[in-house]
């Protein structure tokens, strides 16, 4: 079977292991989201049971740990650091119990609900401990996956770096478009399956567009060795302390603010802002007013001082926004003939990359009818 993958982030690199040619527009793999994130291997705790995120995250984490303990992945820095999700009051404590039962439905193993938290500097009435949450060097993982694919497939795997593919030619209507028809036909006939996983470059459809959401990190000048997160209402935000793989550094964040110029003509964007404006304002303050971030962190770590925080790197999430102004929560794939578009692969897609690859290749190569998922 001839498979082409467009986009050399973690999803593309993992998919290319299933016998493929990989096209990446920049001169290295994992240069966008896959190389600018929290580096967390999520255990699969908070995702809705039955969702693709729940299933592929739990499975993907197992695949990552297995790959990194194999010979091919043994150079990848990885650590099962564990994570405490903490509740600061009784209302949050009740939600932690619900979260624990959600996680159990998702098949997450080894969770413990604790009174308080066994970290002297953290204030909490209750905590949920996840021993299988980990930290990893994702760019090193991407490189190891590429090397493993080269070793296993030899000349059958070709990595085309600095090769930007014209994405317009891969859209369902391109064959009927005078400008794109011949390029579109070439892609349809040359490959049995084309997987387009281009993150923030994903083209808008009549149903959704990509909203670039910036996640700013701050570095802590003091130490902690495990991941700590507060219970959170929004899937991608909330106070988080994440250690680096070597345990020498601790990141706080990421925040969630719009990156670039807002899509002012998009009614969906205004619906989103109208519904969540308090959250939006709060995130802008946390990113640009250091004292505001420090105040929210102090609820968790009372001894933290403003000078303990230093602005660090940022990443840009590719998050799908529907025309109704809803942030699409689950992973979303669309297929037209032999071309599969990954339209939404936000966190935990790095954790899930090997499971997503297996899912897409087995599901979409089986029959040739056009369908969307889910
Ligand atoms: C701030 C932040 C924190 C996160 N934290 C975590 C975490 O801790 N754990 C976790 O599991 N997930 C996390 N994520 C999510 C995770 O990083 C992404 O879901 C994942 O990396 C998506 O991988 P991808 O391959 O789909 O996209 P990307 O990594 O964005 O890769 C897309 C690739 O496509 C290439 N491309 C674009 N256009 C073209 C073209 N025309 N032709 C060829 N190539 C093209 C780009 O150059 C890029 O390399 C985080 C994300 C962010 C931004």
Automatic annotation (TrEMBL):
Keywords: FAD, Flavoprotein, Oxidoreductase. Coiled coil: none annotated. Residues 2-361 form the FAD dependent oxidoreductase domain. Its cofactor is FAD. It comes from the Eukaryota. GO terms for molecular function: (S)-2-hydroxyglutarate dehydrogenase activity. This is L-2-hydroxyglutarate dehydrogenase, mitochondrial. It comes from Cyanidiococcus yangmingshanensis.
